[in-house]
Amino acid sequence: VETEKEVVKEVEVEKKVLVEVTPTPEPIRSPHITSDPPAGEEVWPTIYDDSGNLFPKPSSFQEAPMLAAKVAAGDLPPVEERLPDNPLILKPTEGVGKYGGTWYRGFTGPADGQNMERPLHDHFLFYDVSGLNVQPNIAESWTQNEDS
């Protein structure tokens, strides 16, 4: 009687793979941002003064230059008449901005729907940039029950 016998021998094989390493490029930044502030010294826009009170309504507002001709022609009411009685006032980080220009935003592509939707929503409340504090947006105030 003849039998077949299978012999299995494990052999260690070393395989070398060449990998091309591409350095990570520097992120594209706004030409207006020259450097990040040191950690702990970040300054963000806020709606509160140093005492924790909402900023008061200014005594006057400036008309947007691109709308001044329409206001002068009577096609558009003056800025004071277009604003609500109690507008939300933000303290800017460095100063009042300039009209016009380019809005720089990070966008990761077609699947980044949240990024596309974010500037299109006006919420009653929102979190400040730290993500820790709820602030008014459309709502001037709110209350919560004891269970929340």
Overview in brief:
It is built from three helices and two strands. It is low in regular secondary structure and 148 residues long.
**Low-confidence spans:** none
- Sketch the major β-sheet: 2 strands, antiparallel
Mean pLDDT across all amino acids: 78
Q: Report the strand count.
A: 2
Shape: elongated
Q: Cα distance, first to last residue?
A: 84 Å
Strand order of the largest sheet: 1-2
Structural category is: little secondary structure
Portion in helices: 10-25%
Continuous helix count: 3
Percent strand equals under 5%
Describe this structure in words.
The chain has helices spanning 65-72, 79-82, 113-117, and strands spanning 125-127, 134-136. It is mostly loops and 148 residues long. The protein has a two-stranded antiparallel ribbon with strand order 1-2. The chain is elongated and about 110 Å long. The mean pLDDT is 78.
Comma- or semicolon-separated keywords:
little secondary structure, two-stranded antiparallel ribbon, elongated, 4% strand
Write the topology of this structure.
Elements (H helix, E strand, L loop, with lengths): L64 H8 L6 H4 L30 H5 L7 E3 L6 E3 L12
Antiparallel strand pairs: 1-2
